[in-house]
Specification:
This protein is mainly alpha-helical. The chain is built from ten helices and no strands. The chain has helices at about 10-35, 35-40, 55-60, 65-70, 85-90, 100-105, 135, 145, 165-170, 195-210. The radius of gyration is 25 Å and the shape is extended.
Length: about 220
C-alpha cells in the first residue's frame, strides 16, 4: 500500500518543534528586554491632584529644591512638601486659586486636620531596595542625575529607568556624576566638556573617599 503522506512530511514534526522553540526564545527575549523600567517606567507622568509646575516655581521664580523638599540633605527619603509649606506662600500669593482647593482643604485654616492631598508617587523603588537621598546629595550627586531637568517640567515625569543596571553604571563610575557641592541643586549646571567632568569627578571621588558599593548587600538589605 502506498504511503498516504509524502516523504517530506517526515521532517515536519522536527520543524514544528524548532519553530516553536525559536518562537518561545524570541518571546522570552522580548519580555526580558522590553518589560524593564527603561520601557515601562520612563515617561510615566500621572495627573496630580494639584497641578504644580516645577517650571514656574523653580525655573522662572528661582526657588531652590530644598524650599519644598526640606529634608533631602538629612533624611534617607526626600519628603513630599507638607500643605504648611505650600500655604506659607499661598496664604498671600493666589490664595483663592481653584487649583489650590485640595491644599486649602487639607490646611483648613491652619488646623492641618483636613483631608490629605493624595499625591501620586512617580519615582518608586521596590521595597527590597535601600536608597539614601542624603548620602547622595551630600557627596556631589545632583537631583538631575536621577530626576532629569525637573526644573523645566510643567508636569513631572520619570526621566530615568532607575533600574539595577542603571544604578550600577553610576556606582561603577561615580566620577561621571559627581559635581561641586555648590551646584548639586543647580539643575542647569553642566561641566564644559566630558573631560572636565571626568577631572572634577575624579578629584571629588578621591577627596571625599567616594566608593559606592557594587555588591548585592549595598542596596539589598
Amino acid at each position: 500500500m502506498a504511503n498516504f503522506f509524502p516523504k517530506w512530511t517526515n521532517q515536519l514534526p522536527w520543524k514544528v518543534v524548532i519553530c516553536l522553540g525559536v518562537l518561545t526564545l524570541s518571546i522570552a527575549a522580548a519580555v526580558t528586554y522590553y518589560f524593564t523600567p527603561k520601557f515601562t517606567r520612563v515617561g510615566y507622568q500621572p495627573t496630580q491632584p494639584v497641578p504644580f509646575s516645577h517650571a514656574l516655581h523653580v525655573d522662572q521664580l528661582g526657588m531652590d529644591c530644598r524650599t519644598c523638599h526640606s529634608f533631602v540633605e538629612v533624611a534617607s527619603h526626600s519628603n513630599v512638601p507638607s500643605v504648611q509649606t505650600c500655604m506659607s506662600c499661598h496664604t498671600q500669593i493666589k490664595p483663592d486659586s481653584p487649583k489650590l482647593a485640595p491644599v486649602r482643604a487639607a490646611w483648613n485654616g491652619g488646623k492641618m486636620d483636613g483631608p490629605p492631598v493624595n499625591w501620586v508617587r512617580i519615582h518608586r523603588l521596590p521595597d527590597y531596595v535601600y536608597f539614601n537621598h542624603a548620602a547622595h546629595v551630600n557627596r556631589g550627586v545632583s537631583c538631575y542625575s536621577c530626576h532629569g531637568n525637573v526644573n523645566t517640567m510643567e508636569v513631572v515625569y520619570q526621566h530615568e529607568p532607575q533600574s539595577m543596571s542603571w544604578c550600577l553604571d553610576c556606582h561603577r563610575q561615580p566620577e561621571n556624576a559627581l559635581r561641586p557641592p555648590s551646584e548639586v541643586f543647580n539643575l542647569n549646571w553642566k561641566a564644559t566638556s566630558a573631560h572636565e567632568q571626568y577631572q572634577l569627578g575624579s578629584r571629588f571621588k578621591a577627596e571625599w573617599g567616594v566608593n559606592p558599593p557594587t555588591d548585592c548587600g549595598g542596596c539589598h538589605r
